[in-house]
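INFO batch 0412 | record 1 of 1 | parsing
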Amino acid sequence: MVILGIDPALSITGYGVIQVRKNKLSLLEAGIISTSAQSKLPERLDKIYKGISKLIVDTKPNCLVLEKLYVHYRHTTTAYLLGQARGVICLTCAQKDIPLFEYAATRVKKAIVGRGLASKFQVQRMVAGLLNIRSLPKYMDITDALALAIAHSYMLRSIEGRLKGAEG
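INFO prediction complete | emitting tokens
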């Protein structure tokens, strides 16, 4: 199974593609899609759309995983812009017929580190260890996206285990 994790944002959207075979994880591709603050919003959203579309065509994921939107009452404008980037990604999934899954950041951290309030650095170190990444990526957005993909693989494994247990 190939899983595409995306940490959406308007400036830097991180992505990570992993493959899961017999409970072994391997890194296929990871990086960012960046847009310029000087560009107009429609151009920035178009760049994200085209980047995600190309990524889906190139890596052929079985599913896409996004972080759920968390809105703090002091940062409504940020949430509004983030929501637009997420909307473009959700639309791309629908157009490419890719199943979409969403998880809260705390659930991902719990799956990866064992603590829902783990730091970004702890998540980054654990992701690097799980995928045998020797040097940490420049952007935390990349490891956040990889964490989403890894967490989803764990959630699937947990569901499969429960289904097998119910059969027996």
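INFO post-check: The two ends are 25 Å apart (CA to CA).
INFO record closed
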